[in-house]
């Protein structure tokens, strides 16, 4: 083989590689399948999300029960706070009344 023939073979190989590269950069028949699969997966996940939102979680009933129990306890706490305030008010009224009567008795006794 002469040097000229070697150069021709190298050029042909380079041209074939360039053609192969050009084909790779172009349209790939598998691209549509990949896009279809990804859209299909997105649709399925969206559907499962809708179904998931509609179905109640197994622990949801426990959560609802706890929320209702918390509401009951908050109501009881409010009632107890009201009772405490009323009791303190009555005690102040009693002390004020007793202390007032005691002072008036003293002033009455000192007047004599």
* Rg over C-alpha atoms, rounded to the nearest angstrom: 46 Å
Q: What fraction strand? A: under 5%
In helices, the fraction of residues equals over 70%
Order of helices and strands: HHH
Sheet with most strands: none
Kindly give the count of domains.
1
Q: What distance lies between the first and last C-alpha atoms, to the nearest angstrom?
A: 150 Å
Number of continuous helical runs: 3
Estimate the global geometry from the Cα principal axes. rod-shaped
Q: Average the pLDDT over all residues and give the rounded result.
A: 75
- Beta strands, count: 0
| Contiguous runs where pLDDT drops below 50 for at least 5 residues | none
* Secondary-structure-derived class: mainly alpha
Structure, explained:
- By secondary structure, the chain is an all-alpha fold.
- It has one domain (32-111).
- It contains three helices and no strands.
- It has helices at 3-25, 29-54, 60-111.
- The longest helix is centred in the last third of the chain and has 52 residues, at 60-111.
- The radius of gyration is 46 Å and the shape is rod-shaped.
- The model has no long low-confidence stretch (mean pLDDT 75).
């Amino acid at each position: 083989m002469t040097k000229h023939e070697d150069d021709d073979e190298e050029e042909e190989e380079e041209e074939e590689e360039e053609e192969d590269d050009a084909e790779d950069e172009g349209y790939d028949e598998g691209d549509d399948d990949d896009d279809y699969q990804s859209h299909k997966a997105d649709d399925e996940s969206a559907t499962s999300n809708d179904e998931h939102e509609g179905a109640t979680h197994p622990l949801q009933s426990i959560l609802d029960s706890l929320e209702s129990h918390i509401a009951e306890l908050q109501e009881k706490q409010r009632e107890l706070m009201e009772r405490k305030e009323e009791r303190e008010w009555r005690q102040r009224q009693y002390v004020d009344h007793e202390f007032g009567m005691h002072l008036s008795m003293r002033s009455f006794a000192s007047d004599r």
